[in-house]
Structure formats: C-alpha cells, structure tokens
Amino acid sequence: MIQVAINGYGTIGKRVADAVRQQPDMEVLGVAKTRPNFEAETAIDKGFSLYAAIEDRADQFAEAGLEIAGPVEDLVDGADVVVDATPSGIGAENKSMYEAYDTPALYQGGEDADLVDVSFNARSNFEDATGADHVRVVSCNTTGLSRVIAPLREAYGVEKVRATLVRRGGDPGQTSRGPINDILPNPVTIPSHHGPDVETIFDDLDIDTLGMKVPATLMHMHSLNVTLEEEVDAETVRDLFADESRLFLIPERMDIDGSGKLKEYAMDAGRPRGDIWENCIWEESISTVGTDLYLFQGIHQESDVVPENVDAIRAVLGEADAEESIETTNETMGVGL
Ligand code: NAD
C-alpha cells in the first residue's frame, strides 16, 4: 500500500484525501493542518490522523479538543509520497522539508513551474513524472485545457490554440474574494499566464490565452478556438471527445444552460460535494469552420485536479502506466458522467 501524506487540508487537500482513501493501492497516512477549524474537525470525524503543520500552533488543536498525531515532519518522514495542497507559494517553502526526509512531493498549480522537475497532466504526459522527486499537478484551468488539446494533437495536429478564460471570482468558501459586481480583464495583460502554463505540459505548442474574472463561484468557463492542421467536421471531433474518459459532452436533451445547472446535476447525481471532475463541453458548441474548431467548456475549479493528483502519485512511484492508473482512478471515484 502506498502511504500518502497530505499537507494542507483545504479545498484541494480534503478532496484528494477522500479520493486517495478510495484507491485499492493507497492509504492516507495522515493530513496536516495549520489550525483547528471545521475542516480539522471533519478530518478527525472521517478518521484521518491529524498532524500539526506549524509546531508553535500545535497547542491550539488540544485546546479545541482535537487530538494531534504529531508534527508534520513525522508525517512526511513516514510517507512514500506527500501531496502538498497548501496555498500558492507555501509549497515552495515546504520543498526543503520534503527533501530533508527524502520523500517525493506533488505540488499544486499555484506553485511556479520552475519549482519542480515535471508539470503533470495524466492524459498528456503521465510517463514524464516517473521517478521524479518534485512534480506539479497543473492548475484547474491548465488541466482543463490539456485534456482537450492532447487528443486533438494526437488525432489532427494543432497549429494554434486561442482561449478566453472566464474565471470565477473565488471558490464558494472564499468570502474575501471578488469581484462582487464587476467584470474584470484579469490579468489585464495579454496573453495571460495560462498559455505558458499549458506549454509546460506540451512541447512546441502555440497557445495564447486571455483571462477575465466575474462575480461567480461555481465554475470557470472557457471559450476555445483551436486551429487544427487539417479540416475536420464537428461530428468527428465530437466522436473523438466522446472516447475521452475525463471529457463530459453535455447533451442538448439535458437542457443544461450553464454552470448553475451543471452543479445542480452533479448534486442530483450524488457527487460528493457536488464535484465535477470532468471537463464539461457543451456538445452543441463543438463547431468547425475550415480548420478552426470552436467550443465552450465549464471547468469545476475545486475538483478537476483531484483525479490528476491520484494519478500523479502512481506516476511518480512508477506503480502503474497511464492507462491503468486513469482507469483505476476513474472507476473508484466514479469519474465519467
Ligand atoms: P485552500 O486555502 O482552500 O487550502 C489550503 C490549506 O492549506 C488551508 O487549509 C490552509 O490552512 C492550509 N495551510 C496554510 N499554510 C499551511 C502550511 N504551512 N502547512 C500546511 N497547511 C497549510 O487552498 P486551495 O484552494 O486548496 O489551493 C491549494 C493549492 O491548489 C494552490 O496551489 C492552488 O493554486 C491550487 N489549486 C486551487 C484550486 C481552487 O480552485 N481552489 C484549483 C486548482 C489548484
């Protein structure tokens, strides 16, 4: 059994912990938190061993009646791999701790690409992570773009990608984020940082991205234009995408007009936390004009990277190939709407 440590038990960390627990070849050795809050309490309720991420604050857990298994260093020392799901920039500060205990580490998309040996997306470059000590599971947006670009490159060749990312202002729990009543070019400079991030996954990809932020919390929305190397009709592209396990083609009959109904559908379907691990592509939006392909896709920022983290664990430890790992992860989590 692969012993997995999870350092940072917030939006991403708690979801990764639940997903790891469902795997037949993995165990959650423990989760580390900085302070006792509702997430610390649910971690204990779920039976995860709780470790103190910051030694000086360990007493706070006892005061809140929460039992601590030890300092985060013990957790990292005992694990085969650590998933760092701390806020952007903290992963970089933690790197020396993982090195000191010789524990391979996965980081999240908020960290810089140059922190790690490999940036990772299971569908696109699984094997690159084998044996690496420091791997970054790319951001929710980069994951969403990579999952679409990989099959298109393999099937038809991609000349150029242009994407406009309409980004949620914050996650539902992020009460301090915004905008509340505005539409922001964000970042205002063009191209946005997302394109270069996708280029960390693919060699020789030509991609420009533009970003905006809107008063929404549920999902991101991508408006995508891919210039292919050959003319393909829309039906053929739909068939290509239908074979991809982490792409959900929203059928017209479902009458899902936006991210609100998508989230409602996920909750009705009994998804944990209403999570949507798949890219949600509106089937009707898939259109071609000559070599240009267009589509809209919704990306659930809080959850699409979760199966990718599970796959990255197997990739780093060389425990499975891409196909085996993706299949196991999908089956155990229930990925595939
Ligand atoms: P979050 O704030 O919800 O959770 C981070 C957790 O780490 C919190 O519980 C926080 O208390 C804890 N923490 C803070 N400092 C710590 C430390 N020194 N040691 C251990 N734990 C510490 O953040 P998140 O949204 O889960 O983001 C985590 C990472 O995932 C970031 O790199 C982010 O960019 C990336 N990411 C976030 C999203 C998203 O939409 N939320 C999507 C994809 C990737």
From TrEMBL:
Task: Name the EC number(s).
Answer: 1.2.1.59
Q: In which pathway does it act?
A: Carbohydrate degradation; glycolysis; pyruvate from D-glyceraldehyde 3-phosphate: step 1/5
- Record Pfam families: DapB_N (PF01113), Gp_dh_C (PF02800)
**Catalytic-site annotation from UniProt:** C140
Q: Which InterPro entries match?
A: DapB_N, GlycerAld/Erythrose_P_DH, GlycerAld_3-P_DH_AS, GlycerAld_3-P_DH_cat, GlycerAld_3-P_DH_NAD(P)-bd, Glyceraldehyde-3-P_DH_2_arc, NAD(P)-bd_dom_sf
Going by the UniProt record, its keywords in alphabetical order are: Cytoplasm, Glycolysis, NAD, NADP, Oxidoreductase
Cross-referenced Gene3D superfamilies? Dihydrodipicolinate Reductase, domain 2, NAD(P)-binding Rossmann-like Domain
Protein name (Swiss-Prot/TrEMBL): Glyceraldehyde-3-phosphate dehydrogenase
What broad taxonomic lineage does this protein's source fall under? Archaea, Methanobacteriati, Methanobacteriota, Stenosarchaea group, Halobacteria
Q: Which gene encodes it?
A: gap
